Structure formats: structure tokens, C-alpha cells
């Protein structure tokens, strides 16, 4: 696929993420949606969602690709792999666990679609087709685990202080620590498996442009 087509793909992904995140953030500031509390509380809780953070990481990782589809860099590599992991987990967990529990309407349905149904497959399919490859090493995999583990630690600490958890499968108040930790452990294992698979595919799929 040509660099021009790649730039269009990454540009569309970036636009979807920006519009979805900013629109949903605006709705949260306006007090529309599920988030409760004062403005400051809603801001903190909004940016605490794995979905929001994974979409932002995806945006940061693809912006350089809009300029140069074969972009590379020492710190960009783990950012790219972290974003790919996060957005893939976002799509999988939402489709399997969270979608049956939610029924967004109106503008919320559009932003929900952008965050959960458009960005994840576009990011993953774009990576499979466009790369750039190879970019993933085992040290890159190790660095890519930092964010999901940090998010889990932050979520449990924040929940212990505030009593609020972004997702029902992590709600210690409802489930207890044993079940919540089991669920977070599953997410961590899933993350490691997906990262290892990404590294394998990164080495097996055709090289794209500059290696």
C-alpha cells in the first residue's frame, strides 16, 4: 500500500479518536453521562478510564505516521506497541464484557462507537496491513507492559480512596479484593499474551519500508 494511502488511514484514525474523546469529554464536563460528582471529580474520573487512555495513546502513536508512515524512534517503539495493546484490549473487553451492560443513546452512541467499534479495529487492521515493521523487540514488549500495570495499580489505589472504579469487573466494593484482583490478573495475562503475539507477527509479517 502506498504511503499516501497509509497517511489517509492514520489520519482517519487520528480524527476519529480526537472527535470521540473530545466530544465525550465535553459531555462529561456538561454533566451528561454516567459520571457523577463535581467538575473536578468528573475530569479525574474521565481520564481514569482505560478506554480513554488507550485511545489517547493510539493518537500519540499514529500522529508521527501521518507525516511519515515508516516512522521509527527509540521511545516511539514502546509507545506504538503500548497503544496497539491498549486499543486492542479496549475493543475486546468492551465487546465481550461491557457492551451487554450498556445502552448508549444519541451523541453518546456515536462517541461510544468511535472509541470502541471504530478505533480498535482500524488501529489493529492498519498495523497488520501497514506496519511499520519490524519495530518490536523483547525489551519493547517489557516497556509496553509498564502502562497497563501502572493503570491497574492506579485504579485500585484511586478506588480505595474514592470508592469509585471505572469498570464493574474491577469494583472492589461490589466484588471484594479476591475477585477484583483475579480479574486484573486476567487483564495483565491477556496483555502479555497479546504483546507476545504482536512481537511474533511483527517478525513474521512482511517488512514494510525501512526496517
TrEMBL record:
The chain crosses the membrane at residues 46-66, 78-101, 113-130, 142-165, 177-201. Keywords: Membrane, Transmembrane, Transmembrane helix. It comes from the Bacteria. It comes from Klenkia taihuensis. This is FAR-17a/AIG1-like protein.
Amino acid at each position: 500500500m502506498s504511503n499516501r494511502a497509509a497517511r489517509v488511514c492514520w489520519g482517519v484514525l487520528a480524527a476519529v479518536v480526537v472527535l470521540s474523546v473530545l466530544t465525550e469529554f465535553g459531555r462529561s464536563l456538561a454533566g451528561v453521562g454516567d459520571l457523577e460528582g463535581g467538575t473536578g471529580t468528573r475530569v479525574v474520573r474521565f481520564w481514569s478510564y482505560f478506554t480513554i487512555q488507550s485511545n489517547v495513546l493510539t493518537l500519540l502513536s499514529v500522529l508521527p505516521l501521518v507525516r511519515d508512515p515508516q516512522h521509527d524512534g527509540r521511545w516511539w517503539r514502546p509507545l506504538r506497541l503500548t497503544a496497539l495493546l491498549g486499543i486492542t484490549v479496549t475493543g475486546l473487553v468492551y465487546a465481550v464484557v461491557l457492551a451487554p451492560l450498556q445502552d448508549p443513546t444519541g451523541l453518546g452512541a456515536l462517541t461510544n462507537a468511535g472509541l470502541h467499534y471504530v478505533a480498535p479495529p482500524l488501529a489493529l487492521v492498519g498495523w497488520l496491513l501497514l506496519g511499520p515493521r519490524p519495530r518490536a523487540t523483547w525489551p519493547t514488549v517489557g516497556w509496553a507492559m509498564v502502562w497497563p500495570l501502572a493503570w491497574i495499580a492506579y485504579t485500585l489505589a484511586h478506588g480505595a480512596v474514592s470508592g469509585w472504579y471505572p469498570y464493574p469487573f474491577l469494583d472492589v466494593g461490589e466484588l471484594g479484593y479476591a475477585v477484583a484482583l483475579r480479574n486484573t490478573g486476567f487483564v495483565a495475562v491477556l496483555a502479555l499474551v497479546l504483546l507476545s503475539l504482536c512481537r511474533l507477527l511483527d517478525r513474521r509479517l512482511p517488512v514494510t519500508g525501512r526496517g
